[in-house]
Design a protein that fits this description.
By secondary structure, the protein is mainly α. It has a single domain, classed as Leucine-rich Repeat Variant (Alpha Horseshoe). Helix 2 runs parallel beside helix 3. The protein is elongated.
């Protein structure tokens, strides 16, 4: 039933579907026309699949993806048009770099 509702005209219904749909079916919703539906998808997709939303037109979706995506995939967001996304990326990269240094040889 959720699969049918994923195409409902009401975006609020589609948001609820995105919250409840199985993870294996969730990628089918990355192209939803409503940014808030795609944001729900970005909050639930496994990190390995977040690249599907890396070029989303909505800054809120890209920010959520940049928060959750694997550190090795952050390069995609380094030149994001929104400064808040670029700042998040820089902070995540700096924190990882700092962690790497503190766990280096001799620790």
């Amino acid at each position: 039933m959720l699969i049918v509702l994923a195409n409902d005209v009401d975006s609020e219904v589609r948001r609820i579907v995105a919250r409840r749909l199985t993870l294996s079916a969730l990628p089918a919703m990355v192209g939803d026309p409503e940014p808030m539906v795609r944001l729900e998808v970005a909050e639930r997709l496994p990190p390995a699949q977040l690249h599907l939303l890396a070029r989303d037109p909505d800054m809120r979706v890209r920010f959520t993806v940049a928060e959750r995506i694997d550190i090795d995939s952050l390069e995609t967001f380094r030149d994001d048009p929104e400064s808040v996304v670029r700042e998040l990326v820089a902070a995540r990269l700096a924190s990882t770099h700092h962690e790497d240094e503190s766990h280096g040889p001799g620790t």
